[in-house]
Amino acid sequence: MFASSTSRNLYASVGPSQSIWAINPAPAPLALPPAPAPLQKSAPVSLTALEKASRTLQDQLIADAQAVPELADMLQSHPQVPYTSSTDKAYVPFYRKRAINIPDGLMEYYDAAHDYSYMGLMPEIERAWITMNNKLFLWDYNDGQDISSFVDQPNLISHVSLVKPKAGVFVDEIQYLLVICTPVTVILIGLSCAPTAGPSRHARSELKLYATDMIVSTEGNQMSGVVGTRTGRIFMYGMSDGGLYELAYQSSEGWFSKKIQLVNHSVGGYGSFLPFLNKPDTDRLSSIVVDDDRNCLYTLSTQNNITLYHLGHSGDQLTLIRTIGGLRKAAQALFPGLPALDMPNFNIARMHVIEVGVSRNVHLVAITETGVRLYFSHYRRNPYGPGLLGALGTGPRNPQVVPPSLELIQVRPPPADLTIPEVQQQGMGLPATGAPVVITFISMSAHSAGLTLGAQAPQTEAGSDFILCVSPDLAKMVNAPPAAAPAPGAYGSYGTQAAQRPLAEYATILPVMGHTWAMVEARRLPLSASPPASPAPNSMFELATQFSEPPRQFVVFTNEGLSFLVKRRAVDHLKQLLDQYDTDPRPAQTFCQNFGRVESAAMLLAVACGNSFLAHNGLEQGNVDDFSLGGVNAEMSANAKLLFYSQGGVPVLKSVNPGSLADSQIVFSGRRDGFALYFARLVRPLWRAQIVRVGAHGRLESNVFDTTLVTIQNNLESLRSFLERNPTLFSSTVEMRDPVVQDAWKIELASVAQLQGLLVQTIEAISFVLLLIDYQLSEIVGQCDQPTQQNMKSLTYEELVSSKKGRDVARGLVNAIINHQIGHQISVDTISELLQQRCGSFCSADDVLMYKAIENVRKAKETRDPSERTQCLRTSYKFFSKGSANLEFEKLREIVREYRDLRYAKGAIELPLKCARDWDADNLGHAHWAEGCPMNDPRVELYQKRVKCYDLVLDVLSAFSSMFDAQPPGVQSIEAEELALLRATAYQLAISSQDEVFHSYLYDWLLAKSMKDELVEIRTPFIEGYLRREPVALERAELLHIYYVKTGQYLRAAETCAALAESPDFDLNLEKRIQLFTFAVNYAKSHPGSELGRQEAAVEFLTDLEEKLEVAQVQLEIFNELYPRFGEGPSQEGTAVHRLNRNLLSISDLFQDYADPYDLLEIKLLILHVSDHHDPGMVNAIWDALFERAVDQEPTVEEQIKAITATVTRLGQRFYPSETAFPLEEVTMRLERFALERNTIVPQGWVPRLLLEASVPFGDIFNIVHKLYESQIPPFHVQNAVQWLSGDMAILVSDWVAEATRPQSSIPRREFPANLLDETVDLYLRELARDRDETRRVFERAKLAIRRHY
Asked: GO CC annotations (predicted)?
C-alpha cells in the first residue's frame, strides 16, 4: 500500500544478519602512537615480528643487488657522457693515504744494478718484489722494513710472478708458487704465508720459501708475463718467439711426461715440446690475463690483436675461440671523430678482466696508451638495434658458459681537460695546480670493480708520473633518470639506442713520486670462508659495502717507493660536508638530494652512529695529503642526526586495507628506509651465510670469521645505542588530525619497532655464536642430538635470529653448553649468569632454571618457617616462569598440584596461565578460538594446549572454594579467614590475567556454575568482549546490557537491548521484545549528553528507538485483537497470529497483512498515525466506516450517539492533533452532519463538547466550526443547517468563556482571544434567525461575560 508513498518503513532493514554483536564500541579519539620505547637487550621475542623485519632486510638486500644497471646497457646508452672532475680536494674520488720509500738497503742495490732491476707487486701476500741481477727481494710494504730474499741461483732474474699451486703436487704448507724467470730457465719456489704478530697495527705475515727442485730450461727463449689460474695452471709467453706457453708440472715423472716442462700452445706437433724448432713470429704476445670465474684466457700481441681461449669447465683445457684484430678501425667505427683514436701511437697498454660481479655481458676492457677504454664481450652486437645477441639476462649467473665469440662492443673516451687538484707537489716536476693535463701515454694501468687507474708518463725525464683515476659516479648512475637515446647515427653502427642510464664517472689526476713499475688493488680480506646466499650487489656499487668493509685502495710501485691511493666513498665525502655544515649547510643538503633520501639517510645514520669503517683515515705515518678523513667527531654526529631528521620526509599511505592496517600500501619515510638499509648493509656479510662449515679433519668451524662477527656486532651495538639515546628519531612533532596520516605513522612506527627488535636479537645472536666459538664450537655441536647437528650445519644467521628452527637449534646448543660446563665442574649459577650477560633473551638456559626451581619447591615442603617457605615458593615460581616455554604439561600439572597443596595461589594460578601464553607464542591457538574454533583446523592443537592449562587453573579455584566451603558455617577461625583470603586471592589472580582466551573460558565456567551475579560484577578489559562474542547466546546477551547499566554505559545498554529486541536469532515473544525496546528507550534517555561525545547520534538513536517501539506496540495491539479470535493454532489465521507474536514486522506488513485483511479500522488509523502517512482518501474512508459501523450496530439514536461519542473520544484522545489519523475538519463535519440529521434527539452543542472531551482545544474547535459556518458546504448551505452551526458556536463560546473565567483556569488570560470572540459573537448575532431566542441569549451572556472580564 505504501509503494508510492514517502512514509518510513521502520523495520525495512531488519534481517537475519543483524545481532547485538553488530554494535560497535565507541571510537577512541585518534592519536599518534608514541615513539618506540628505548631498546632493551632482553626484549621478548616475537618470531612473527622478527620474520617480518627480516623480510624487510632481505628486500633491501635485493634492492641493492638490482641498483646498478647492466654495464653493457650503460655503455650502449651514451658513450659521450662527460666525466665529472673537480680541483677541490674534497671532491676528488681518490686521495693518497700514505707513501713509503724503498728501504735504504734496497736502494743501494737498486742504484748499483739499475739496468738489471725489475719490480712488481704481489698483493696476495702484501709484498713488493724487486730483482737486482740474480737476487730476488720480497719487501713487506705494510711493515716497511721486513725483507725476504732468494739468491740461490746465478742467472739474471727478469720476471717474477706469484701463482696458486696445483692441488696434490706439493706439501700442504705450500700456499703459493713463485715463478722466477731468467733468460735461460724457469724456476718454481714454494711459498707459505702465515700471520704473525707485528709491532704496528697491521697484521704481519711471515714468509717461508720451499725448494721444489722444479726448474726447466727455456732453450734461450726468455719467458715473461706469467699468470696462473685458480686450478694451478701456469701460462706465459716467450719473448723471443712471442708464443703462448704453459708450464706443465706434476709431482713425479711419467712414462710420457716430465716432472716439469714448457708446452708451446702457439704451435702444434713437436714444436709444442721443442721450442728451438719454432720460428720467431713478428706479431708477438705482450700480455696475458686470466679470467678464473669464466675459465677464460686472453692474450694481447704487439700488433694489438687480442685472442680468447676457453679453459674448459674444469679449467684443464685450452680451446681457441677467436682472435680479433683491426681494433683501431673498429673503435673508430664505434666512436668516429675521437681524437685519442687518431693519434699515431695507438697501442693497447693493458688488458683487464671485467669481474662477474660487475657485468654478465661485458668481459674484458683494454686500455690504450692514449687512455681510451675498449670494452669487449663474448656476444656479438645486435646489428638491428640495441643489445647483444645471446647475452645473459637477469636470471642466475652461469659464468662458465663456453664463450661463442669475442667482439668489441663499445669505446669509452678518456677524460678531457683534466686539471691537477690541490695537492702537495713539491719536487714532483708537475705543472701548477689548475693546469690542463692531456692523456698521451699510459704506461701502466689497473682496473677492478669499475675503478680504473692509469699511470701517465711525465712530460720530462726528470718528472714524475701522475695517476689517472676514474671511478663510477654512483649518484648519477643509480638515482638519475634514464638518459634520452642519442640521435640516429650519433655514434657508430648502434643507431638509435633505447633510453638507459649512462655510465657516469668521476675522473681526477694524482701525482706520485718516480716512474711507475706496477699498480694493483690492495688485498681485500674476505669476511667469511664462503659467501652468503643473499643476492650480491654489483661490485661497482660501493654504497652497499661502505659500512661493512674498509675503503678500497690501490698500491702504486715506483722506483721511489710505494704510494697508497684510497678510494673516497660517498660517506667519506658526506663526512667532509658535515664537518663544514655549520659554516655552509647547502652542500650537504645538495648531497642528500643527489643520492636520494634513503641512501643519504643510511649514510647519515652511519656517521651519526660512528660506524667503525669511517675511522680509516689519512693520519698514519707517511701521510702525504694535507687534509684528514679521520673518524667521526661529536659535531659531525650531531649534524648528521639533524640532517637525518630534517631530510627524512614522512610516511605516505597509498591505499588502506580495512581488514588489516599492516597490509596497507605505504611509502615509508626516508628515515625508516634509511634505518632498514643501513641495518641490512651492516649484516649483509653474514645474514644469509651459514653459521658453520666443515673444516679440516671434518671439524666444524665458524663460516664467518670471528673478526668479522665482532666488527659487525660493534657497529650494530653502536646503532642500537644511538637509537636508544634518540627515542624520538622516527616520530613526528606535528599534530596530525587526518586519520590517514595517523595510520601511515602507525605503520611506520610499528615497522621501526620490528626492526629495532630484530637489531637487538641480531646482536645477541652474534654473541651466542662467539660464545660457541669460545667453548669449542665443534665439540658443543657434537654433544647435541642428530637432528640438531644436521640443522646446525645448514643454519644461517637469518634463520638463527628469526625462525623457530633457529630457536630450536639454539635451545639444543644451550643444553649442550650447560652439560659441557657442568662436566668441567663449573656451577650452574656461573653458566646461567654468563648466558644471561652475553645473550639473555636469545638463550635463556631453561634447564638450569628448572633445576633451581625444583630445588626451591623441595625446600619449601621441608621447612617449617612460613617466611622461608614463602620465599622459596616465590623463588621457585620466578625460575619456573622463566623456563615456562619449555615445560612439559605433565611436569606443569605436577608443579601446580604442589603449589595447590602448599596453598601458594600465585604459582598455582599464574604459572599455568603463563605456560598457556608461552606454548602458543604466535597466538595461533588464540586465532583459532577467535575464529570460532573451525573444524579441521591445524591450530586446534595449540588451542587445546591452552585449554589444558586453563583447566588446571579452574581446578585450583574449585579446590580452594571447596576448602573454604568445608568450614563449619558461622564459626569464626583463623583457618577460615586464611581460606577465605586464599580463595579471594586465587580469584583475583585469575581475573587479573591478560589472557583473553582464559577469561572467556573462566566466564563460561562461572555461568555453568550459575554465578551470573559474580560475573557481571567483574571489571576486566575482556568481560564486554566475552558477553558480545559470537556465536550469540541469549544468556550472555541479557547479561551484557546489565553489565553496561552497572558500569554507567547507558547508551551501550540501550544499543544492546535494541539489537537484542530486533535479533531474529532468539525465539522471543512480542511482549519480551517490547520490554527490551522499553529498556532501550529508558536507557537511552538516561545517557548523559557528554558520554562518548555522541550526543547527536544518541538523540537520533533515541528517536529511532521510540519509533520502533511504537511499531512494536501497534503489532501488540493487533496481536491482542486477533489472538482471542484465532489463537496460535495450525490454521492460516493462527499461523498469522503466531508470526505476530514471534517476529517484528514492518509497518507496511502490519497494514497489508493484518489491519486491511481483518478490517481493523482503529488499527488502520493507528498505523497511519505511527507511520505519519498522509492519505486523505484512506483516512476519510476509515472514518466513514467507523460512523457507519456505529449506526449499523446500534438500533436507537441514543445508542448510536453513545457509540460515536465513545469512538471519537477514544481516538481523539489518542491521535489528536494527528491529521493522518484524526483529521479534525472531516471528523467535525461528520459529527455535525450526524447531529443535524438527528437534531430532534441530538442536543445542541453535542459536537463541540464531544470534541472537547476528545482533547481538542477550544481554539481548534472554534476554527473548524466557524469554517463550516462560513463555507456553505452542503448540507450547511441551507438556513436550518447554518442556524444549527450557530447554536453549536454559541455553546462553544459560552463554555470557552466559562472555562477561561473560572478560578484555576487552564487557559492563561493572555491567551484568551477576547476581541476575536467579541467580534465573532456580534457577527453571529447579526445573522442569527429571529426564532433562535435560546441561541441569542447564550451569545449575549457570553458577550457580557467577555466584556465584564476583559
From this structure: nuclear pore inner ring
- Output the pLDDT for position 560: 85
- Omega before 938 within 30 of 0, i.e. cis: no
Q: Tens digit of pLDDT for each residue in 12-54? A: 333 333 333 333 333 333 333 344 444 444 445 688 999 999 9
Residue 186 or residue 1061, greater confidence: 186
Dihedral of alpha carbons 577, 578, 583, 585, sign: positive
DSSP string of 681-713, one letter each residue: HHHTTTTTSBSEEE-GGG-EEESB-HHHHHHHH
Q: How far apart are CA 461 and CA 457, in angstroms?
A: 9
The values of phi and psi at residue 1105, to 5°, are -60, -45
Q: Are 682 and 547 in contact (CB under 8 A)?
A: yes
Do the Cβ atoms of 987 and 957 come closer than 8 Å?
Answer: yes
User: Under 8 Å CB-to-CB from 98, ≥6 apart: which residues?
Assistant: 563, 564, 618, 620, 621, 622, 623, 624
Query: Each residue of 319-372: pLDDT tens digit?
Result: 999 999 999 999 999 999 888 888 777 899 999 999 999 999 999 999 999 999
Q: Is the dihedral of CA 48, 52, 57, 59 positive or negative?
A: positive
> In which order are the strands placed within the sheet that holds 373-377?
348-353, 364-368, 373-377, 407-412
Tell how far CA 672 is from the center of its chain.
10
Q: What is the DSSP letter of 285?
A: E
Contacts 24+ apart (CB under 8 A), 914-920: 914/881, 914/884, 915/884, 915/885, 915/887, 915/949, 916/945, 916/946, 916/949, 916/950, 916/995, 916/997, 916/998, 917/995, 918/884, 918/885, 919/885, 919/945, 919/946, 919/949, 920/945, 920/946
How many Å apart are CA 505 and CA 491, to the nearest integer?
19
Asked if 869 contacts 899 with a C-beta cutoff of 8 angstroms, the reply is no
Residues in the chain: 1350
Set of cell numbers at residue 549: 668493509
Q: Look at residue 1268 and give its three-state secondary structure.
A: helix
Q: Are 1128 and 1138 in contact (CB under 8 A)?
A: yes
Stated pTM of the model: 0.64
3-class SS letters over 631-687: CCCHHHHHHHHHHHHHCCCCCEEEECCCCCHHHCEEECCHHHHHHHHHHHHHHCCCC
User: What are the strands, taking DSSP E only, across 302-347?
Assistant: 306-310, 319-324
Torsion angle of C-alpha atoms 585, 588, 589, 595, degrees rounded to 10: 180
Distances (CA, A) of 349 to 416, 463, 517: 19, 21, 13
Residue 1133 corresponds to which amino acid? E
